[in-house]
Design a protein that fits this description.
The chain contains 15 helices and nine strands. By secondary structure, it is α+β, with helices and mostly antiparallel strands.
Length: 338
């Protein structure tokens, strides 16, 4: 089913409003004479055959924005404790919106689960956290975000210059008006908030119209989120995480220092970590300690938790998306016959 989002009709209306309103923070035009900018343009021309004049035109119309740099320096998952971060997303308003959304797209979500093994609650959790089911998709021009971070944010300039290259290629492949694309401060687009490289690699045509439209087609959005998890080896029917407690013998906690679980169900149990799971003792698992409202919270994450962190490299994000999806499904199916 093709559903056009209100924010997508048309791109130019929003873009014009943003431009007429003027920048809320100082903006500086990109200097096309900079060596790193010239090298970027040369690469797009020489390696990908894009038109030099077009590239320069787009870049000349872009601007570095301080608001983008400020936002990059304080992402919520790095500055907020777990209980505050969770409370951003686990609200009655967002859960109710998710229940309504599930009712509208249930058939499609169930078909995606049949095709990929990715359950509806996981896709609901992602779209709910990322964009409040399409309500919040960002207000920055994508080209401005990627120019700002690619040329004036040294910690990750290489990555964002690559994403800037990807959005040029994406616009050519999908026939998008590059200058009109609007998204997050990091250049992510649409309800699933795909960055350009993810859009190119994982987006699929869910409604069969021959296009991969993550801006205007919910069928494409939902199928693409499912495909993202399937490609990253989601295991159908396996758990994501389990809350844990500690016994007296849990003195040297094998806490995770990376996103990928580095222990096993059996080893954690032997170390005095109590948690419920039907996975066998050799199954991969990891233990995380998070700041709960009443003190430390312990969570054991399994393979599928790691898969969620491929979408956003944060355990707090993964847990929040998973919990939101579960809360939506619990509310949506309350009272249904089992």
């Amino acid at each position: 089913m093709k559903r056009i989002f209100p924010f997508a009709k048309p791109y130019l209306a929003l873009l014009t409003a943003l431009l007429l309103a003027g920048p809320a923070n100082p903006a500086l035009a990109l200097d096309l004479k900079r060596e790193d900018v010239r090298s970027f343009v040369d690469e797009l021309v020489d390696q990908h055959g894009l038109d030099r004049a077009y590239i320069n035109q787009v870049l000349a119309g872009s601007a570095t924005q301080q608001s983008i740099l400020d936002a990059m320096s304080r992402p919520a998952e790095k500055v907020k404790p777990w209980h505050e971060y969770r409370d951003i997303f686990l609200t009655s308003k967002r859960i109710d919106a998710g229940v309504e959304f599930y009712g509208q797209h249930r058939e499609r979500l169930e078909q995606i689960e049949a095709d990929t093994g990715v359950p509806p609650e996981m896709i609901l959790g992602i779209v709910g956290v990322e964009s409040f089911f399409g309500r919040i998709t960002g207000r920055h021009r994508v080209v401005d975000a990627l120019v700002t971070l690619g040329f004036d944010y040294p910690p990750r300039a290489k990555f964002f210059r690559s994403e800037l290259q990807q959005v040029f290629l994406l616009a050519q492949e999908e026939q998008l008006q590059l200058e009109a694309l609007v998204g997050s401060y990091a250049g992510a687009m649409g309800p699933p908030q795909f960055i350009p490289s993810s859009y190119r690699a994982y987006a699929v045509d869910g409604d069969g119209d021959g296009k991969r439209d993550l801006i205007g087609s919910w069928d494409d959005v939902l199928a693409s989120v499912g495909n993202y998890f399937a490609v990253h080896k989601w295991r159908a029917g396996e758990p994501v995480a389990a809350s844990a407690s500690l016994t007296d013998r849990a003195t040297e906690l094998p806490l995770q220092t990376s996103l990928k679980p580095g222990s096993s169900v059996g080893k954690l149990s032997a170390a005095g970590v109590l948690f419920a799971t039907e996975l066998h003792s050799d199954a991969t698992a990891g233990l995380w300690r998070l700041d709960g409202a009443a003190g430390d919270e312990y969570w054991v994450g399994f393979h599928n938790l790691y898969v969620i962190t491929r979408y956003n490299r944060s355990v707090m994000y993964a847990l929040a998306a998973w919990q939101l999806g579960n809360a939506i499904m619990a509310a949506a199916t309350d009272g249904e016959p089992s």
